[in-house]
Amino acid sequence: MIRVFSRNGPLSLKKFPVIYNTKRLVHSSDEEDEPNELWVTRSHYFKPVKTPMFPEGLFKGKVAFITGGGTGLGAGMATMLSSLGAKVAIVSRNIEVLKNTADVISSKSKNEVLPIRCNVCSSESVRDAVSECIDVLGLPTIVINNAAGNFISPTVKLTKHAWDSIMAVILNGTINVTVDIGKRLIAARQGGAFLNMSTSYTLSGSAFTVPSACAKSAVESFTKSLAAEWCIYGLRFNCIQPGHVHTPGATAQLDPTGRFMHGKLNKLPLGRYGEVEEVANLACYLVSDYSSWMTGSIIRLDGGEFNFAAGSFNHLIENVSDEEWAMIANLIKNKRKSAEEVVEQA
């Protein structure tokens, strides 16, 4: 039921059948599963640009170290950094995937891409991986903490192991890599740029992905804290909160049935999902000298989803026609006149 209120209390909508249309104002659960055509078609105004926005050779002579670099966003960021001249080390636990990704990237960029097996949850494994990177490519001055673990589940059904595994990869993994490479950069008196990957639901919390929300929130605090403490060593720290970008790995864990994301376009003001290359372009900016005056920043890149969801009346942009707005305006105007008449009579 929908009720509209004025200063004089609830207004009856029975006299206004066009307004009293719950299917227009409030979608049913079935309707939410289908993307609104108007939302989808507006995306033609906001077509993604997938090519690098920086000149070739921007990162020539630089070494980048990217966790979770074998697939998804990690592979996308590695691809763009390599195309712009960087030597890149990509690390994860799956060495075969890493080797395939490294071959694909290097065959296109003609720059060296080093696959390294590493479990970021282990400080010893991280130490060995960083040492291998230094031996082959050199000391990395670009570090992207992208490794993550997440899946959708009711919190009441999560085991301690599930909690620990997600916290270990996201939070402990970020800390292990950052502290190890950070100490080496400080000892070498070498500056560097660190980029951590987060999510927009750290701002609001999120049901059914509670361990991830907790871990990512801690990563953001870690980012801002070191931005203050380690600036004296020439080290910068920033963070990206990407919205929904379709990657096979993340989608398989968060929407294995394909049910939830299908209707999500209705909640994206720009009418489309993000592209890996769009995140990669932002990442390249944040680890480049073009952003040398930026540190401690948390940047949301989500197609406007968070802001749109936060506004109480934002959903009305597609659910109320011009005729209905005119009726509402007249209704409010008439009620205001009635109220003023009552005041005058009193």
From TrEMBL:
Any single Gene Ontology cellular-component annotation: mitochondrion
Gene: 20210652
Family annotation (Gene3D superfamilies): NAD(P)-binding Rossmann-like Domain
Keyword set includes Oxidoreductase: yes
Name of the featured protein: 2,4-dienoyl-CoA reductase, mitochondrial
GO biological process: fatty acid beta-oxidation
Signal peptide start and end residues: none
InterPro entries referenced in this protein's UniProt entry, alphabetically: NAD(P)-bd_dom_sf, SDR_fam
Pfam families hit by this protein: adh_short_C2
Superkingdom to which the source organism belongs: Eukaryota
GO MF assignments: 2,4-dienoyl-CoA reductase (NADPH) activity
SUPFAM superfamilies, sorted: NAD(P)-binding Rossmann-fold domains
Alphabetically ordered keywords of this record: Oxidoreductase
Keyword Ion transport tagged: no
